[in-house]
Amino acid sequence: MPYISNTDEERAKMLAELGLNSIEKLFKDIPPELMSSSFNLPKGKSELEVRRFIKELASKNITDLICFLGGGFYDHFVPAAVGAITSRSEFYTAYTPYQAEVSQGTLQSIYEYQSVISSLTGMDVTNASLYDGGTAICEAIMMAVRITRKKKIIVDEAVNPIYRKMLHSYAANLNFESIDVPVGKDGRADRKTIESELDNNTACIVLQNPNFFGCIDDVSDLADLAHTSGSLIILSTYPVSLGILKSPGEMNVDIATGEGQSLGLGLCFGGPYLGLMATRSKYIRQMPGRIVGETADKNGKRGFVLTLQTREQHIRREKATSNICSNEALCALSALVYLTLVGKHGLRELAELCNVKACYARKRFLEIPEIKQKFDSPIFNEFTLELPANAEDVISKLVHKGIMAGFPLGRYYKNMKNCILVALSEKRTKKEIDFFAESLGEIL
Amino acid sequence: MRLIFEKSISGKRGVRFPERDVPSACNIPDGLKRKNYAELPEVSELDTVRHFTQLSQHNMGVDTNFYPLGSCTMKYNPKICEEAVLYKGLADLHPLIPQLPDGNKLTQGALQVLYETSQFLSEITGMAEFTMQPLAGAHGELTGTMMIAAYHASRGQKRKKVIIPDSAHGTNPASAAIAGYEVVSVPSNAEGVIDLDEFKKALDKETAAVMLTCPNTLGLFNTQIKKIADKTHEAGGLMYYDGANLNAILGKIRPGDIGFDIVHVNLHKTFGTPHGGGGPGAGPVGVKKNLVEFLPISRVVKKTDGTYALEYNYPSSIGYIAPFYGNFGVILKAYIYILLLGQKGLTRVAENSVLNANYIMKKLEPYYHLPYMRTCMHEFVISAVKQKKNGVRAVDIAKRLMDFGFHAPTVYFPLIVEEAIMIEPTETESKQTLDKFIDIMIKIAKEADENPKITKTAPHNLGISRLDEVKAAREPKLRWTK
Questions:
Q1: Are residues B325 and B357 in the same domain?
Q2: ipTM of the complex
């Protein structure tokens, strides 16, 4: 029997110890009329057969397209050492480190993760992770609602539209009101409209940088504005961009969130990913999720434990700050190992590399006379182009040339049917960019 | 161990990027740039690998030690699953591809994994349909609670209470509260299951749902479960099944058959996906027919021509609860697990997990107080009240076990048992391991009598002694700073 090591003989011995002659007797508490009416599953298969079958399934998915598709989820290079560490089963077959003395590996790595994310975001404290960038925004909003005791949320429309959809369903079910504000002409947050929406009932303003259209911004002024009306500011970030961009902390943000997928995690069809959350020290007791703290053992030796647990569901039950239990610890480990390998100067270099590739690509595309730049704002690694044709049609044609050209913005923004969002990472070469530009020129 | 930051030396690098091959320059205005570099470590690849390899050696995992952590189902995780998630076409598949024109066609293999796993789970639990989106068990609970609210709203009702037994996981009341419900906690009776009279008193027209784990966190099956379901339905409420303990009943009972309307399944427990040191998990949610319309979007469907597609047009849906289609990598591992074990294998999982638990319980019963003298399911709870007379508490026993190479059981949960020690061996452990564990537990019981000091000051052999949690909370130090 796969993964069950006891033999029939051993089972019989164990049953005899219990004074039973069959395993069925162990289920005698269950009234017979409640037993399964059906359990129609296939017969088990060998590992060899299953492996063959999964490889066949994998081959039914498209591979080998040159990827310019981003939208918050990026095709970055992952050094081999990341996988070498996260595939150590001492890490991946452990669970939540409730028993600190046999979990120092996990606990110290989470402490180090909290340290790098705090520094990267310029914030004071970071939790041990949330599920993904979207649920991180929803948790941040719930946190802002608790802190301010207000219920209105102002959301910039250039926050990832998928996250906004999530936020809408959380809002509908969790009793807060959200208002979406369209971006200004330059593709960045529309200060005027936000200011007019901001009132004494506003819990927070939610923004993203770089935003979904690829534009970058300094939202310090909006942070000041929010604070004058007793509201908070939540900024969703792209951690690789923080190698060069002004950090949320430098912009006076109250809660920084983000999707950690770009930090050493594969795209893996949408998960597992990593929800980043960092905040100010003064808000720590309202922060959701696990937090690891430094302490000492009885001999004074440094060690790490889960701490501030009175915020959490296993202690506080219905009064907890969140219902989260399992988070994304192994993904947080990937992010930590990745940031360790890339290092202080490497991350700046990587961010610049992404930016120069994007600048070059945008320049190449804009050489095609029919193509226009949609927004006149600085970019990081992604940008919006306005095409002379429906973006979906153009994307389809480019798939046949082996190019995953980008994301058609019309899917989420009604008046942007001809707009495409194009992303660059350090993995794209000049040759690939040139090929994309040439192919695009040919089909337009 | 030193922190990675304490090993950092200016100028060291762990990875090199390709040289710039494009003529453009960086065009980010200075006003939008950060002033200082983020304080990341500066170490070589070897430094990195050695640091984290050494850290891993300060951990216990299922692969290194018996890990009888009750309610967490720490079973062995098949290695083929770890291999398969790295396959090209799966590991590198961009989640936005299905949203491109004709995108479904480009992702048929991945959509098939999602669809078939959901079908398997429906059959295993007796539900009509599953969403694979919830990213953890607690996220599944929240999704389920949102659907409960949507269901009542669609009938023009705004019920305000959710009934939860006092033995429940903390996530149950927390999830219900976040969704805006008032939580009514019902006590357990002398048999360790929800008290029927108290339950009837709590149940009324304001009850939106009853959330239960069955078998419950004491590892006990509630023989009155059908009655509870019937009463709840009569009052117009819904039955929510917390699938944390599904391992015990695979192929034996299906929540759908015994009256549950909604169920979440923890793939990282029952379906053998690794726990990752605290995630990633996955918490798919299944519902009966009358709740299908409220499932989150997108939904994966199989078309009449045999192809798979994502559908979004469900007006009564609670909407998006996750960015994409769930923790795909975790779901894929669970899918492989089900394919490997098949119908018979899964039934044997339940049988062997229950046998292993009863075997340990029987052997420990002369030495530890057993608050509920019944056949248990996949786990059981003993109490350290006997040992407490000598000053030895559950936590001491937990720490002492580590000295002998065992991970500790869950302690102080469920809250209704004084000095609770909750043991879940799982089906994958051998009789030899169980016997060793039993011997050590007996040895510790004797030690607690004869030499309690050694138990109270454990662990002794780990290179680190008991850590001061009070200090950590009083003087929070939550990050390294220069």
A1: no
A2: 0.98
